[in-house]
Amino acid sequence: xxxxxxxxxxxxxxxGDGSVHFHREKFVPRGGPDGGDGGRGGSVSFQVSQSLNxxxxxxxxxxFIAVDGSRGGPNNMSGKSAPDLVILVPPGTIIxxxxxxxxxxxxxxxxxxxxxxKGGRGGRxxxxxxxxxxxxxxxxxxxxxxQARKLRLELKLIADVGIVGVPNAGKSSLLAAVTNANPxxxxxxxxxxxxxxxxxxxxLETTLVLAxxxxxxxxxxxxxxxxxxxxxxxxxxxxxxxxxxGLSADPLADxxxxxxxxxxxxxxxxxxxxxxxxxxxxxxxxxxxxxxxQPELVKRGYEPVAISxxxxxxxxxxxxxxxxxxxxxxxxxxEEALPVYRAEADARAFKIEKVKDGWRVSGKAIExxxxxxxxxxxGSVRRFxxxxxxxxxxxxxxxxxxxxxxxxxxxxxxxxxxx
Length: 419
Ligand SMILES: Nc1nc2c(ncn2[C@@H]2O[C@H](COP(=O)(O)OP(=O)(O)O)[C@@H](O)[C@H]2O)c(=O)[nH]1
Ligand SMILES: [Mg+2]
Fold this sequence. Notes:
The protein is built from nine helices and 18 strands. It is α/β, with parallel strands linked by helices and 419 residues long. The strands form four sheets. Strands 10-11-9-12-13-14 form a six-stranded mixed sheet, with helices on both faces. A five-stranded mixed sheet has the order 3-1-8-5-6, with no helix packed on it. A four-stranded mixed sheet has the order 15-16-17-18. Strand 10 (196-201) and strand 11 (207-212) form a beta hairpin. The structure holds guanosine-5'-diphosphate and magnesium ion. Guanosine-5'-diphosphate binds at residues 165, 167-173, 185-186, 189, 214, 279-280, 282-283, 308-310.
């Protein structure tokens, strides 16, 4: 089965910094703290859109960054929260974390949404830090940093267009002409248990997933071993290209035969909208035959097209016609699968390592808190120290043998240890 893959990087927005500010008014001395909170940073999420069918758009764009929250202002003014960044993906997209090597989610139904990176919380302004002992707090929080993740998207392609027709009509040739697939041309069809799939990129937003469905008519309806995935593709196709061999003795008889074979195999299949196409129009004898076949097909209510899979004549107009039909065709219902989410690692966990010129402390909560500290304000620093104690980092460092004056590294911050 053909699998579409893409690797992307997503980053949520940082929260806005809380502000340190004191109320000022003319002739009014010593106003109270009125520094506003920072706004929330934008989250990054995925959402399933039924109108997509491949991951080709990620070939043109692989970095997705949500906007940061704005910083708080004076007068208790909160900073603006940033909008979330929503990435649209086709149904059936599986998302892996490439660094954690874990499954993040399995997106199945239209509209389903999954947040993969939460936006940073806005830092609190100094208005929150006033107390009876300290009515002029020179402290605040910086915004929480955003998160970045490297993700691998994976999609098992399901064809929305099936190419049917008698052997030698040119099904494989057509698929090879319009897509990245390279099926064997002139191959004996019986042995194929999986359909050949290809993606035709029409423009940035429009892609067609086509399947060359050989062997369907050669007795397949009475169980001549079509694989499950083959049946799945046939059932999921919404439009058929019915390819007639222009070189055949009687293309119209072929047409009738294939239609009745399809009805036997699966009545739903026979009801799917068809674009009737006469192939090999590059050959003079086929051009002659076309003049006779065309009015016959029109009489039966079709709008037949003549193409050449060999010279690519009239192939683009054919595909656009298929795109139009697809827009009108009913969407398939997709079997539900339970989404799987990664359990978040314990944020409070931390690790201490002895490094060359000091100690390195790493861990989600401790690193996040360091990034949210205003080191120039002692109140803010004290809050950070309090967290070190609460998490038990202090104790572990002492046990590990830290000495007065040693350097503690947290992310890109360097702190000096004092007992
Ligand atoms: N002249 C001509 N030959 C074609 C065209 N399309 C396919 N063929 C030939 O017809 C034969 C059968 O083609 P193939 O794609 O294998 O047909 P399939 O059995 O329907 O998959 C091959 O020899 C192709 O080269 C066409 O547009 N013009
Ligand atoms: Mg073939």
